[in-house]
Sequence to fold (520 residues):
Amino acid sequence: MQRYLLVVEYIGTMYSGSQTQPHTLSNTSKYINTVQDELEDAISTLTKTKIKTIFSGRTDAGVHSKGQTVHFDCNLEIEPRKFVNSLNGILPDTISVKSLRKVENTFHAQRSAVARYYRYTIVNREQRSAWDANCLLIKYPLDIEKMNEALRYLIGVHDFSSFKKVRTSNPAKICKMYKAEASKQGDYVYIDFVADRFLYNMIRSIVGTLLLIQRKSLAPETLKDILEARDNTKAGPTISPMGLTLMEVIYNNNIDGESL
Amino acid sequence: MQRYLLVVEYIGTMYSGSQTQPHTLSNTSKYINTVQDELEDAISTLTKTKIKTIFSGRTDAGVHSKGQTVHFDCNLEIEPRKFVNSLNGILPDTISVKSLRKVENTFHAQRSAVARYYRYTIVNREQRSAWDANCLLIKYPLDIEKMNEALRYLIGVHDFSSFKKVRTSNPAKICKMYKAEASKQGDYVYIDFVADRFLYNMIRSIVGTLLLIQRKSLAPETLKDILEARDNTKAGPTISPMGLTLMEVIYNNNIDGESL
Fold:
Protein backbone atom coordinates (compact mmCIF):
# COMPACT_ATOMS: atom_id res chain seq x y z
CA MET A 1 0.00 0.00 0.00
CA GLN A 2 1.39 3.39 -1.03
CA ARG A 3 0.44 6.69 0.61
CA TYR A 4 0.00 9.73 -1.65
CA LEU A 5 -0.21 13.41 -0.74
CA LEU A 6 -2.26 15.87 -2.78
CA VAL A 7 -2.29 19.66 -2.66
CA VAL A 8 -5.81 20.80 -3.49
CA GLU A 9 -7.21 24.22 -4.43
CA TYR A 10 -10.87 25.17 -4.34
CA ILE A 11 -13.30 28.05 -4.42
CA GLY A 12 -15.38 27.26 -1.35
CA THR A 13 -18.41 29.35 -2.27
CA MET A 14 -20.25 26.42 -3.82
CA TYR A 15 -19.42 23.77 -1.23
CA SER A 16 -20.67 22.95 2.23
CA GLY A 17 -17.15 22.80 3.60
CA SER A 18 -14.13 20.69 2.82
CA GLN A 19 -15.06 17.49 4.55
CA THR A 20 -17.94 15.07 4.42
CA GLN A 21 -20.11 15.44 7.51
CA PRO A 22 -22.64 12.90 8.71
CA HIS A 23 -25.37 15.58 8.62
CA THR A 24 -24.70 16.75 5.06
CA LEU A 25 -27.99 16.66 3.18
CA SER A 26 -26.51 15.99 -0.21
CA ASN A 27 -29.89 15.50 -1.85
CA THR A 28 -31.30 18.96 -1.10
CA SER A 29 -29.10 20.95 -3.49
CA LYS A 30 -26.47 20.35 -6.08
CA TYR A 31 -24.16 22.80 -4.31
CA ILE A 32 -24.20 21.10 -0.94
CA ASN A 33 -21.56 18.51 -1.84
CA THR A 34 -18.29 18.79 0.00
CA VAL A 35 -14.86 19.11 -1.58
CA GLN A 36 -14.04 15.71 -0.07
CA ASP A 37 -17.03 14.09 -1.81
CA GLU A 38 -15.96 15.46 -5.16
CA LEU A 39 -12.31 14.56 -4.66
CA GLU A 40 -12.99 11.00 -3.49
CA ASP A 41 -15.39 10.47 -6.39
CA ALA A 42 -12.75 11.63 -8.87
CA ILE A 43 -9.88 9.59 -7.39
CA SER A 44 -12.09 6.52 -7.08
CA THR A 45 -13.14 6.86 -10.72
CA LEU A 46 -9.54 7.03 -11.91
CA THR A 47 -8.17 4.26 -9.67
CA LYS A 48 -11.31 2.10 -10.08
CA THR A 49 -11.22 1.45 -6.31
CA LYS A 50 -13.10 3.07 -3.42
CA ILE A 51 -10.66 5.65 -2.03
CA LYS A 52 -10.97 7.38 1.36
CA THR A 53 -9.10 10.65 1.88
CA ILE A 54 -7.72 12.36 4.99
CA PHE A 55 -7.66 16.17 4.95
CA SER A 56 -5.19 18.33 6.92
CA GLY A 57 -8.23 19.75 8.61
CA ARG A 58 -11.72 20.91 7.94
CA THR A 59 -12.36 24.23 6.24
CA ASP A 60 -15.82 25.70 6.85
CA ALA A 61 -18.53 26.13 4.24
CA GLY A 62 -17.52 28.97 1.94
CA VAL A 63 -13.80 28.95 2.86
CA HIS A 64 -11.39 28.69 -0.11
CA SER A 65 -8.09 26.85 -0.52
CA LYS A 66 -4.84 27.42 -2.31
CA GLY A 67 -3.00 24.73 -0.40
CA GLN A 68 -5.23 22.17 1.34
CA THR A 69 -3.33 18.92 1.83
CA VAL A 70 -4.97 15.52 1.56
CA HIS A 71 -3.53 12.03 1.81
CA PHE A 72 -4.89 8.69 0.63
CA ASP A 73 -3.67 5.10 0.37
CA CYS A 74 -3.79 3.12 -2.82
CA ASN A 75 -2.45 -0.20 -4.14
CA LEU A 76 -1.75 1.22 -7.56
CA GLU A 77 1.48 2.75 -8.77
CA ILE A 78 0.43 6.29 -9.69
CA GLU A 79 2.36 8.47 -12.14
CA PRO A 80 2.00 11.94 -10.52
CA ARG A 81 1.91 14.20 -13.58
CA LYS A 82 -0.50 12.06 -15.57
CA PHE A 83 -2.75 11.44 -12.58
CA VAL A 84 -2.98 15.13 -11.64
CA ASN A 85 -3.81 15.90 -15.25
CA SER A 86 -6.60 13.32 -15.30
CA LEU A 87 -7.97 14.49 -11.93
CA ASN A 88 -8.15 18.07 -13.17
CA GLY A 89 -9.94 16.80 -16.23
CA ILE A 90 -12.83 15.34 -14.25
CA LEU A 91 -13.04 17.52 -11.12
CA PRO A 92 -15.54 20.42 -11.13
CA ASP A 93 -14.09 23.77 -12.33
CA THR A 94 -14.04 25.10 -8.77
CA ILE A 95 -11.71 22.33 -7.48
CA SER A 96 -8.22 21.64 -8.83
CA VAL A 97 -5.21 19.56 -7.83
CA LYS A 98 -1.88 21.35 -7.77
CA SER A 99 0.40 18.39 -7.14
CA LEU A 100 0.64 14.76 -6.06
CA ARG A 101 3.58 12.96 -4.51
CA LYS A 102 4.44 9.75 -2.71
CA VAL A 103 4.93 10.01 1.05
CA GLU A 104 5.97 7.59 3.79
CA ASN A 105 3.18 5.56 5.36
CA THR A 106 3.93 7.31 8.66
CA PHE A 107 3.04 10.68 7.15
CA HIS A 108 -0.43 11.95 8.07
CA ALA A 109 -1.98 15.02 6.38
CA GLN A 110 -3.53 16.19 9.66
CA ARG A 111 -1.31 14.83 12.43
CA SER A 112 2.06 15.55 10.74
CA ALA A 113 1.17 19.20 10.11
CA VAL A 114 3.07 21.64 12.33
CA ALA A 115 1.36 24.83 11.21
CA ARG A 116 -1.32 26.27 8.96
CA TYR A 117 -1.25 29.50 7.01
CA TYR A 118 -4.56 31.26 6.37
CA ARG A 119 -5.19 34.54 4.55
CA TYR A 120 -8.24 36.76 4.89
CA THR A 121 -8.67 38.98 1.81
CA ILE A 122 -10.57 42.26 1.96
CA VAL A 123 -11.19 44.65 -0.89
CA ASN A 124 -11.25 48.11 0.63
CA ARG A 125 -13.07 50.52 -1.64
CA GLU A 126 -16.37 52.27 -1.94
CA GLN A 127 -17.96 50.08 -4.60
CA ARG A 128 -18.03 46.35 -5.09
CA SER A 129 -16.75 44.98 -8.38
CA ALA A 130 -18.01 42.01 -10.39
CA TRP A 131 -14.36 40.92 -10.43
CA ASP A 132 -14.00 40.50 -6.66
CA ALA A 133 -16.03 37.39 -5.99
CA ASN A 134 -13.75 35.75 -3.45
CA CYS A 135 -13.01 38.53 -1.00
CA LEU A 136 -14.95 40.68 1.42
CA LEU A 137 -15.87 44.27 0.51
CA ILE A 138 -15.27 46.82 3.28
CA LYS A 139 -16.31 50.35 2.35
CA TYR A 140 -14.82 52.38 5.25
CA PRO A 141 -11.07 53.03 4.99
CA LEU A 142 -8.87 50.58 6.87
CA ASP A 143 -5.77 51.65 8.76
CA ILE A 144 -3.15 48.94 8.18
CA GLU A 145 -0.73 50.28 10.77
CA LYS A 146 -3.37 50.27 13.51
CA MET A 147 -4.48 46.80 12.41
CA ASN A 148 -0.93 45.54 12.83
CA GLU A 149 -0.62 47.19 16.24
CA ALA A 150 -3.65 45.17 17.34
CA LEU A 151 -2.62 41.93 15.61
CA ARG A 152 0.78 41.91 17.31
CA TYR A 153 -0.94 41.10 20.62
CA LEU A 154 -1.96 37.73 19.18
CA ILE A 155 1.61 36.55 18.48
CA GLY A 156 2.86 33.82 20.80
CA VAL A 157 1.17 31.14 22.89
CA HIS A 158 -2.28 32.19 24.09
CA ASP A 159 -5.62 30.84 25.22
CA PHE A 160 -7.87 31.88 22.32
CA SER A 161 -11.19 31.08 24.06
CA SER A 162 -12.45 34.58 23.28
CA PHE A 163 -12.40 33.76 19.57
CA LYS A 164 -13.91 30.31 19.87
CA LYS A 165 -17.44 29.39 18.87
CA VAL A 166 -19.48 28.09 21.81
CA ARG A 167 -20.71 25.02 19.99
CA THR A 168 -17.26 23.51 19.42
CA SER A 169 -16.68 20.23 21.24
CA ASN A 170 -12.88 20.56 21.29
CA PRO A 171 -11.75 21.52 24.81
CA ALA A 172 -8.26 22.70 23.74
CA LYS A 173 -8.00 26.46 23.53
CA ILE A 174 -4.25 27.08 23.41
CA CYS A 175 -2.70 28.01 20.06
CA LYS A 176 0.78 29.16 19.16
CA MET A 177 0.47 32.10 16.75
CA TYR A 178 3.60 32.57 14.63
CA LYS A 179 2.30 35.34 12.42
CA ALA A 180 -0.66 37.74 12.46
CA GLU A 181 -0.09 40.55 9.99
CA ALA A 182 -2.01 42.87 7.69
CA SER A 183 -0.63 44.20 4.41
CA LYS A 184 -2.01 46.27 1.56
CA GLN A 185 -1.67 46.00 -2.21
CA GLY A 186 -3.72 48.53 -4.13
CA ASP A 187 -7.31 48.19 -2.93
CA TYR A 188 -6.67 44.78 -1.39
CA VAL A 189 -5.95 44.21 2.29
CA TYR A 190 -4.52 40.82 3.26
CA ILE A 191 -4.55 39.57 6.82
CA ASP A 192 -2.21 36.60 7.21
CA PHE A 193 -2.24 34.14 10.10
CA VAL A 194 0.21 31.30 10.75
CA ALA A 195 -0.36 29.14 13.84
CA ASP A 196 0.17 25.57 14.91
CA ARG A 197 -3.59 25.18 15.02
CA PHE A 198 -6.75 27.28 14.83
CA LEU A 199 -9.95 26.89 16.83
CA TYR A 200 -13.28 26.54 15.06
CA ASN A 201 -14.19 29.91 13.44
CA MET A 202 -11.23 31.54 15.20
CA ILE A 203 -9.91 33.55 12.23
CA ARG A 204 -13.35 34.76 11.25
CA SER A 205 -13.92 35.85 14.85
CA ILE A 206 -10.54 37.64 15.07
CA VAL A 207 -11.07 39.44 11.75
CA GLY A 208 -14.63 40.38 12.75
CA THR A 209 -13.31 41.83 16.01
CA LEU A 210 -10.47 43.63 14.24
CA LEU A 211 -12.91 45.25 11.80
CA LEU A 212 -15.18 46.31 14.64
CA ILE A 213 -12.18 47.96 16.34
CA GLN A 214 -11.40 49.79 13.08
CA ARG A 215 -14.94 50.85 12.35
CA LYS A 216 -15.46 52.20 15.89
CA SER A 217 -11.92 53.67 16.02
CA LEU A 218 -11.19 51.80 19.24
CA ALA A 219 -7.63 51.49 20.56
CA PRO A 220 -5.55 48.59 19.16
CA GLU A 221 -5.18 47.39 22.78
CA THR A 222 -8.86 46.44 22.67
CA LEU A 223 -7.85 43.24 20.86
CA LYS A 224 -5.42 42.43 23.67
CA ASP A 225 -8.13 43.02 26.30
CA ILE A 226 -10.57 40.76 24.45
CA LEU A 227 -7.92 38.03 24.05
CA GLU A 228 -7.05 38.17 27.75
CA ALA A 229 -10.70 38.05 28.81
CA ARG A 230 -10.91 34.42 27.56
CA ASP A 231 -14.61 35.04 27.05
CA ASN A 232 -16.20 34.67 23.64
CA THR A 233 -19.01 37.10 24.46
CA LYS A 234 -16.38 39.88 24.31
CA ALA A 235 -15.41 39.24 20.67
CA GLY A 236 -16.90 41.05 17.68
CA PRO A 237 -19.07 39.32 15.08
CA THR A 238 -17.80 36.26 13.22
CA ILE A 239 -17.15 37.62 9.72
CA SER A 240 -18.22 35.96 6.45
CA PRO A 241 -16.07 33.04 5.20
CA MET A 242 -16.06 34.73 1.78
CA GLY A 243 -12.56 36.20 2.12
CA LEU A 244 -10.91 33.30 3.94
CA THR A 245 -8.39 31.05 2.17
CA LEU A 246 -6.26 28.21 3.50
CA MET A 247 -2.96 29.11 1.83
CA GLU A 248 -0.61 26.39 3.01
CA VAL A 249 -0.24 23.50 5.43
CA ILE A 250 3.26 23.36 6.84
CA TYR A 251 5.13 20.15 7.72
CA ASN A 252 8.65 19.23 8.87
CA ASN A 253 8.79 21.46 11.94
CA ASN A 254 9.88 24.32 9.76
CA ILE A 255 7.40 27.09 9.12
CA ASP A 256 9.80 28.80 6.74
CA GLY A 257 10.32 25.54 4.86
CA GLU A 258 9.83 24.87 1.18
CA SER A 259 6.24 24.95 -0.01
CA LEU A 260 4.59 21.69 -0.97
CA MET B 1 -33.48 65.47 -20.35
CA GLN B 2 -30.05 64.70 -18.93
CA ARG B 3 -27.64 62.17 -20.46
CA TYR B 4 -25.62 59.96 -18.08
CA LEU B 5 -22.57 57.80 -18.77
CA LEU B 6 -21.90 54.60 -16.84
CA VAL B 7 -18.76 52.48 -16.73
CA VAL B 8 -19.84 48.87 -16.25
CA GLU B 9 -17.88 45.75 -15.28
CA TYR B 10 -19.10 42.20 -15.74
CA ILE B 11 -18.05 38.58 -15.78
CA GLY B 12 -19.45 37.50 -19.13
CA THR B 13 -19.50 33.74 -18.46
CA MET B 14 -23.12 33.74 -17.34
CA TYR B 15 -24.53 36.08 -19.98
CA SER B 16 -25.48 35.72 -23.61
CA GLY B 17 -23.50 38.83 -24.53
CA SER B 18 -23.72 42.45 -23.55
CA GLN B 19 -26.67 43.58 -25.58
CA THR B 20 -30.26 42.56 -25.95
CA GLN B 21 -30.78 40.77 -29.25
CA PRO B 22 -34.12 40.18 -30.96
CA HIS B 23 -33.45 36.42 -31.01
CA THR B 24 -32.54 36.08 -27.32
CA LEU B 25 -34.70 33.32 -25.89
CA SER B 26 -34.81 34.68 -22.37
CA ASN B 27 -37.26 32.04 -21.21
CA THR B 28 -35.11 29.00 -21.94
CA SER B 29 -32.52 29.49 -19.19
CA LYS B 30 -31.85 31.82 -16.30
CA TYR B 31 -28.35 32.47 -17.67
CA ILE B 32 -29.41 33.63 -21.10
CA ASN B 33 -30.17 37.21 -20.00
CA THR B 34 -27.91 39.89 -21.38
CA VAL B 35 -25.96 42.44 -19.36
CA GLN B 36 -28.15 45.12 -20.97
CA ASP B 37 -31.34 43.44 -19.73
CA GLU B 38 -30.02 43.33 -16.18
CA LEU B 39 -28.71 46.89 -16.28
CA GLU B 40 -31.89 48.38 -17.75
CA ASP B 41 -34.00 46.50 -15.21
CA ALA B 42 -31.88 47.86 -12.36
CA ILE B 43 -31.83 51.49 -13.61
CA SER B 44 -35.55 51.38 -14.38
CA THR B 45 -36.28 50.07 -10.89
CA LEU B 46 -34.32 52.89 -9.25
CA THR B 47 -35.60 55.69 -11.48
CA LYS B 48 -39.14 54.27 -11.61
CA THR B 49 -39.18 54.94 -15.37
CA LYS B 50 -38.49 52.69 -18.36
CA ILE B 51 -34.84 53.37 -19.26
CA LYS B 52 -33.18 52.39 -22.55
CA THR B 53 -29.39 52.17 -22.62
CA ILE B 54 -26.85 52.55 -25.43
CA PHE B 55 -23.65 50.48 -25.14
CA SER B 56 -20.28 51.45 -26.66
CA GLY B 57 -20.56 48.25 -28.62
CA ARG B 58 -21.60 44.66 -28.31
CA THR B 59 -19.40 42.17 -26.48
CA ASP B 60 -20.01 38.53 -27.42
CA ALA B 61 -21.44 35.87 -25.13
CA GLY B 62 -18.81 34.99 -22.55
CA VAL B 63 -16.69 38.14 -22.99
CA HIS B 64 -15.94 40.08 -19.78
CA SER B 65 -15.70 43.80 -19.09
CA LYS B 66 -13.68 46.08 -16.88
CA GLY B 67 -14.67 49.22 -18.75
CA GLN B 68 -17.80 48.91 -20.88
CA THR B 69 -19.40 52.33 -21.35
CA VAL B 70 -23.14 52.85 -21.49
CA HIS B 71 -25.23 55.99 -21.80
CA PHE B 72 -28.86 56.64 -21.01
CA ASP B 73 -31.20 59.62 -20.83
CA CYS B 74 -33.30 60.42 -17.81
CA ASN B 75 -35.48 63.28 -16.58
CA LEU B 76 -34.35 62.86 -13.00
CA GLU B 77 -31.46 64.60 -11.31
CA ILE B 78 -29.22 61.70 -10.29
CA GLU B 79 -26.63 61.93 -7.48
CA PRO B 80 -23.77 59.79 -8.91
CA ARG B 81 -22.33 58.24 -5.74
CA LYS B 82 -25.65 57.33 -4.20
CA PHE B 83 -27.04 56.02 -7.48
CA VAL B 84 -23.98 53.82 -8.20
CA ASN B 85 -24.24 52.48 -4.67
CA SER B 86 -27.92 51.61 -5.14
CA LEU B 87 -27.29 50.04 -8.55
CA ASN B 88 -24.56 47.81 -7.13
CA GLY B 89 -26.96 46.83 -4.39
CA ILE B 90 -29.51 45.38 -6.80
CA LEU B 91 -27.44 44.20 -9.78
CA PRO B 92 -26.40 40.51 -9.89
CA ASP B 93 -22.98 39.77 -8.32
CA THR B 94 -21.42 39.32 -11.76
CA ILE B 95 -22.28 42.87 -12.93
CA SER B 96 -21.11 46.05 -11.21
CA VAL B 97 -21.07 49.75 -11.96
CA LYS B 98 -17.77 51.54 -11.49
CA SER B 99 -18.90 55.12 -12.03
CA LEU B 100 -21.63 57.40 -13.32
CA ARG B 101 -21.32 60.93 -14.62
CA LYS B 102 -23.28 63.55 -16.49
CA VAL B 103 -22.36 64.07 -20.14
CA GLU B 104 -23.46 66.46 -22.89
CA ASN B 105 -26.50 65.37 -24.90
CA THR B 106 -24.23 65.23 -27.97
CA PHE B 107 -22.11 62.52 -26.38
CA HIS B 108 -22.84 59.00 -27.62
CA ALA B 109 -21.33 55.90 -25.95
CA GLN B 110 -20.82 54.18 -29.31
CA ARG B 111 -20.41 56.95 -31.86
CA SER B 112 -18.18 59.23 -29.74
CA ALA B 113 -15.71 56.42 -29.01
CA VAL B 114 -12.39 56.78 -30.81
CA ALA B 115 -10.81 53.51 -29.72
CA ARG B 116 -11.36 50.35 -27.72
CA TYR B 117 -8.88 48.49 -25.56
CA TYR B 118 -9.31 44.72 -25.21
CA ARG B 119 -7.13 42.28 -23.27
CA TYR B 120 -6.94 38.51 -23.83
CA THR B 121 -5.68 36.73 -20.69
CA ILE B 122 -4.00 33.35 -20.86
CA VAL B 123 -2.69 31.31 -17.95
CA ASN B 124 0.33 29.45 -19.24
CA ARG B 125 1.07 26.45 -17.06
CA GLU B 126 0.67 22.72 -17.05
CA GLN B 127 -2.34 22.46 -14.75
CA ARG B 128 -5.54 24.43 -14.51
CA SER B 129 -6.38 26.04 -11.19
CA ALA B 130 -9.77 26.52 -9.53
CA TRP B 131 -8.69 30.15 -9.13
CA ASP B 132 -8.37 30.92 -12.85
CA ALA B 133 -11.97 30.99 -13.95
CA ASN B 134 -11.77 33.97 -16.30
CA CYS B 135 -8.77 33.21 -18.45
CA LEU B 136 -7.76 30.55 -20.94
CA LEU B 137 -5.39 27.74 -19.93
CA ILE B 138 -2.61 27.00 -22.43
CA LYS B 139 -0.35 24.12 -21.41
CA TYR B 140 2.48 24.41 -23.97
CA PRO B 141 5.02 27.14 -23.22
CA LEU B 142 4.42 30.46 -24.96
CA ASP B 143 7.24 32.56 -26.41
CA ILE B 144 6.33 36.19 -25.70
CA GLU B 145 9.08 37.61 -27.89
CA LYS B 146 7.95 35.63 -30.93
CA MET B 147 4.33 36.55 -30.17
CA ASN B 148 5.29 40.22 -30.26
CA GLU B 149 7.24 39.78 -33.49
CA ALA B 150 4.04 38.45 -35.06
CA LEU B 151 1.71 41.00 -33.43
CA ARG B 152 3.76 43.94 -34.71
CA TYR B 153 2.55 43.17 -38.25
CA LEU B 154 -0.98 44.11 -37.16
CA ILE B 155 -0.10 47.67 -36.11
CA GLY B 156 -1.38 50.38 -38.46
CA VAL B 157 -4.28 50.60 -40.89
CA HIS B 158 -5.14 47.22 -42.43
CA ASP B 159 -7.94 45.30 -44.04
CA PHE B 160 -8.66 42.64 -41.38
CA SER B 161 -10.91 40.44 -43.57
CA SER B 162 -8.80 37.41 -42.72
CA PHE B 163 -9.92 37.69 -39.09
CA LYS B 164 -13.56 38.38 -39.82
CA LYS B 165 -16.37 35.90 -39.34
CA VAL B 166 -18.21 35.15 -42.59
CA ARG B 167 -21.67 35.70 -41.13
CA THR B 168 -21.11 39.34 -40.22
CA SER B 169 -23.27 41.77 -42.16
CA ASN B 170 -20.91 44.74 -41.74
CA PRO B 171 -19.08 45.36 -45.03
CA ALA B 172 -16.32 47.52 -43.47
CA LYS B 173 -13.07 45.64 -42.93
CA ILE B 174 -10.54 48.39 -42.34
CA CYS B 175 -9.32 48.95 -38.78
CA LYS B 176 -6.58 51.14 -37.38
CA MET B 177 -4.61 49.09 -34.85
CA TYR B 178 -2.77 51.29 -32.33
CA LYS B 179 -1.45 48.52 -30.11
CA ALA B 180 -1.08 44.73 -30.35
CA GLU B 181 1.26 43.51 -27.65
CA ALA B 182 1.87 40.47 -25.46
CA SER B 183 3.33 40.67 -21.96
CA LYS B 184 3.96 38.19 -19.16
CA GLN B 185 3.47 38.37 -15.39
CA GLY B 186 4.21 35.15 -13.58
CA ASP B 187 2.12 32.43 -15.23
CA TYR B 188 -0.16 34.97 -16.90
CA VAL B 189 0.18 36.12 -20.49
CA TYR B 190 -1.73 39.24 -21.50
CA ILE B 191 -2.35 40.15 -25.12
CA ASP B 192 -3.49 43.77 -25.42
CA PHE B 193 -5.19 45.29 -28.44
CA VAL B 194 -6.13 48.92 -28.98
CA ALA B 195 -7.86 49.85 -32.24
CA ASP B 196 -10.38 52.37 -33.49
CA ARG B 197 -12.76 49.46 -34.10
CA PHE B 198 -12.77 45.66 -34.12
CA LEU B 199 -14.60 43.36 -36.53
CA TYR B 200 -16.93 40.67 -35.22
CA ASN B 201 -14.84 37.93 -33.48
CA MET B 202 -11.64 39.60 -34.76
CA ILE B 203 -9.61 39.40 -31.54
CA ARG B 204 -10.61 35.80 -30.89
CA SER B 205 -9.58 34.94 -34.46
CA ILE B 206 -6.23 36.78 -34.13
CA VAL B 207 -5.43 35.13 -30.78
CA GLY B 208 -6.45 31.72 -32.15
CA THR B 209 -4.15 32.21 -35.13
CA LEU B 210 -1.32 33.47 -32.92
CA LEU B 211 -1.61 30.38 -30.69
CA LEU B 212 -1.63 28.08 -33.71
CA ILE B 213 1.58 29.75 -34.92
CA GLN B 214 3.14 29.18 -31.49
CA ARG B 215 1.99 25.60 -31.13
CA LYS B 216 3.26 24.65 -34.59
CA SER B 217 6.42 26.78 -34.21
CA LEU B 218 5.66 28.65 -37.41
CA ALA B 219 7.51 31.85 -38.32
CA PRO B 220 6.05 35.09 -36.87
CA GLU B 221 5.72 36.30 -40.48
CA THR B 222 2.90 33.77 -40.88
CA LEU B 223 0.58 36.27 -39.19
CA LYS B 224 1.57 38.92 -41.74
CA ASP B 225 0.90 36.51 -44.62
CA ILE B 226 -2.52 35.62 -43.23
CA LEU B 227 -3.38 39.31 -42.69
CA GLU B 228 -2.34 40.19 -46.24
CA ALA B 229 -4.30 37.30 -47.76
CA ARG B 230 -7.58 39.05 -46.76
CA ASP B 231 -9.15 35.62 -46.69
CA ASN B 232 -10.73 34.28 -43.52
CA THR B 233 -10.17 30.66 -44.52
CA LYS B 234 -6.44 31.26 -43.87
CA ALA B 235 -6.87 32.20 -40.18
CA GLY B 236 -6.55 29.78 -37.26
CA PRO B 237 -9.49 28.78 -35.08
CA THR B 238 -11.56 31.40 -33.27
CA ILE B 239 -10.50 30.98 -29.65
CA SER B 240 -12.86 30.80 -26.64
CA PRO B 241 -14.25 34.13 -25.34
CA MET B 242 -13.27 32.96 -21.83
CA GLY B 243 -10.09 35.07 -21.67
CA LEU B 244 -11.37 38.17 -23.43
CA THR B 245 -12.07 41.39 -21.52
CA LEU B 246 -13.11 44.83 -22.77
CA MET B 247 -10.77 46.96 -20.66
CA GLU B 248 -11.59 50.49 -21.73
CA VAL B 249 -13.48 52.56 -24.25
CA ILE B 250 -11.52 55.63 -25.24
CA TYR B 251 -13.05 59.01 -26.09
CA ASN B 252 -11.78 62.53 -26.88
CA ASN B 253 -9.46 61.62 -29.76
CA ASN B 254 -6.76 60.80 -27.28
CA ILE B 255 -5.92 57.16 -26.77
CA ASP B 256 -3.50 58.01 -23.99
CA GLY B 257 -6.11 60.17 -22.27
CA GLU B 258 -7.42 59.89 -18.77
CA SER B 259 -9.43 56.76 -18.05
CA LEU B 260 -13.13 57.09 -17.47
Remarks:
- The interface with chain B takes residues 9-11, 66, 81, 84-85, 88, 93-98, 126-131, 133 of chain A (CB under 8 Å).
